[in-house]
């Protein structure tokens, strides 16, 4: 498995910011009909994506300080694209491996999303009952999204290990997250970059 920890603020790159800004606009247009609220809604979506990405990186940094086994540490930092390419001799075996590998790679990003979501809920919702109900729904949604991403990664690995693996995971994850997809923007941009770089590498070869 590939160990690939990111430096703090590594997500704040111009290409990532531009992609996130553009995608945030699409997210806002899909969920907001009033042009008056567009700017505030876009800013909220854009900021949320950045905060989630940096929270994710802080959690990775914290995990580095823990006494985790090398195997667990490797799984948490697995690059799905590169990991799938290492097992391309048998697509079925690759698909089975992605079913168990993908959940580990999504634990920290989804924990970061939940942390940000819970903070927003604590500010926005008036009572504990509403907070607990919505919190449970967010946790359930993240769990289902991880399962959907694992299935998507496995199915697409049968067709195209590597690029297909990542795209399948992202598709399954995004379908379940829906209204919370803005939180995935920068996190998924990193996976897009991995896919694009892998595709260029295969073309050059």
Short overview:
This protein is an all-alpha fold and 205 residues long.
In terms of topology, how is this protein built?
Layout: H1 14-31, H2 38-65, H3 70-76, H4 80-85, H5 91-124, H6 128-159, H7 163-177, H8 185-204
Helix pairs in contact: 1-2, 1-8, 2-5, 5-6, 6-7, 7-8
Provide an overview of this structure.
The protein is mainly α. The chain has one domain (14-204). The protein has eight helices and no strands. It has helices spanning 14-31, 38-65, 70-76, 80-85, 91-124, 128-159, 163-177, 185-204.
Mean of residue pLDDT values: 75
Number of individual domains: 1
3D shape: globular
User: Runs with pLDDT <50, length 5+?
Assistant: 1-9, 199-205
Number of helices, counting only DSSP H or I runs of 4 residues or more: 8
Fraction of residues in β-strands: under 5%
Main β-sheet, in a few words?
none
Structural class: mainly alpha
Which features does this protein show?
globular; disordered N terminus; mainly alpha
